[in-house]
Amino acid sequence: MNDNEGFPHKLLEQSIEERIAYFKNYTMAHPKLLSASQKLMLTVEEPAATSLMFLFGPTGVGKTTLLRRMTQKLLEATRPDMERDKGFIPIAGVETVTPEFSNFDWKDFYLRTLTVLKDPCIEFPISQRMTNLKLRMSVEGALRHRRLKVFYIDEAQNLSKVASGRKLRDQTDCIKSLANITHVQFILAGTYELLILRNLSAQLCRRSQDIHLERYKADNLEDLRAFQGIVQTFQRHLPLQIEPDLLKHWDFCYERCVGCVGILKDWLSRALFSALLKGDKTLTFSDLESHALKTEQCIILLNEALHGEEQLNSRRDTNALRAALGLEVATDVTPETLQTSAKKTRHHAVVGQPLPQRRPVGGGHNAC
User: Each residue of 317-345: b (16+ CB within 10 Å) or e?
Assistant: First the structure.
């Protein structure tokens, strides 16, 4: 179905549960999601030396939706192979649990992995008493036997929860080792807390790929137009008798989801459920307002997003790299900087002395 057509109108004859389920299951191929999805699929199809992919972004931006979208694509692409080999699983994944006592539980991770891979050993109670080493070997065997292409770990920022004395690098080394031994690509998906686990060694830098699923930003005209289109598309897919005019309140929608599509969709799902229970024919601004996140919650979400985005700002790192390599450091020349420079020159210039100027690269003198 085309997104512009909206929901199937026969839904209006269905139960509240079915209408809610339709909207919850509806996914939109919006620009940010498509961009991250294309980069992810390209890396899966042509990994080169990449064994780990870091998929990160702010909470509620749609990372889980992206993983679900990729899963559907891989399952469709490999359906003939799966029909020929009933043991073949092209893609699988787990969601890590928040650890108790700030210590990531590897045993729990191995058991969950064996469960999703439908490994026979998980059916025996003895697996609960196996050591981490034996469980890991079982995971290695299951990944090879199932001939996986991709294994993803959602909420992977929980890997950064380590016991006192344990190195963060050990966490990613365990995953990288699994990937290398089994020839399976691993995706670590999580919030910006995941950033602490990347680039912990030169080898990890070489073997990993960063995929940033960004939020929409109001100071970017292209993002702003895309976000307004997203709001309009969502309003068309709300299974209500009268289509609500959410676009009229797009700025309020943006304000209370801080540009994250997943937050917006969850918010609209709550409002839709409430409206259907009341027997309302549409959504009003009052419905939006009563189910929106509080201002203080949005500020926390925004601050976390801004901090993560700042960590990914590589402009200053580029100059540091060029300087370390002995290359000429690029400078941004703008009318403002030129005016500032001219004022400083007029103030500090001494009569009879030549003004400082850049010499030709190589240190030689020009012949006149």
Answer: eeeeeeeeeeeeeeeeeeeeeeeeeeeee
123-127, 251-255, 331-335 — which one is most confidently predicted on average? 251-255
What are 288's two structure tokens?
Answer: 């939006």
Q: Which domain holds residue 41?
A: 31-212
Which pLDDT score is estimated for 165? 52
Distance between CA atoms of residues 24 and 34, nearest Å: 19
* CA distance from start to end of the chain: 73
Q: Report helix, strand and coil shares of the chain as percent, to nearest 5.
A: 60, 5, 35
Based on the domain organization, do 44 and 174 belong to the same domain? yes
73 and 178 fall within a common domain: yes
Q: Over the stretch 146-201, which tens digit does the pLDDT of each residue have?
A: 999 999 999 999 998 876 556 888 888 899 999 999 999 999 999 999 999 988 88
- Say if residue 237 is in the same domain as residue 202: no
- Both 168 and 40 in one domain: the answer is yes
